[in-house]
Amino acid sequence: MTEIATRLVRNAVGVAGLVFLLLLVVLALAAPLLYPGDPWRMVGSPQLPPLSPGFPLGTDALGRDVAAGVVHGARISLLIGLVSSLCAVVIGTCLGAVAGYFGRWIDDLIMRFTEFFQTIPSFMLAIVLVAIFSPSIGSIVFAIAIVSWPPVARLVRAEFLSLRSRDFVKAAVVGGQSPLRIIFRQILPNAFSPIIVTGSLMVASAILLESALSFLGLGDREFVTWGFMIGAGRTMIRQAWWLSAFPGIAIFLTVLALNMFGQGLNDALNPRLARKGRA
Amino acid sequence: MTDTLLDIRDLRIALPAGADRPYAVDGVSLTLRRDEILCIVGESGSGKSLLANAVMGLLPGAVRIAGGSLHFDGTDLARLDPEAYRKLRGRRIAMIFQEPMTALNPIMTVGEQIDELLVAHGMTDKASRRRRVIDLLAATELPEPELLYHAYPFRLSGGQRQRVMIAAALALEPDILIADEPTTALDVTTQKQILTLIRDLQARRRIAVLFITHDFGVVAEIAHRVAVMQWGKVVEEGAAADVLVRPHHPYTQRLVAAVHGLSARPELAAHAAEPLLEVVGLSKTFRTSQGLFVRRRREVHALRQVSLTIHRGETVGLVGESGSGKTTLGHAIVRLVDTDAGEIRFRGADILAQGGARLRATRARIQMVFQDPFASLNPRHSVGRILTETPRIHGVGKAEAETRARRLLELVGLDASAFGRYPHEFSGGQRQRIGIARALALEPELIVADEPVSALDVSVQGQVLDLLADIRKRLGLAMLFITHDLRVAAQVCDTIAVMRRGELVEIGPAAEVFGKPRHDYTRRLLASVPGAGWTDRPGTRLTAG
Question: Least CB-packed of A39, A91, A219, B457 within 10 Å?
Answer without folding.
Answer: A91
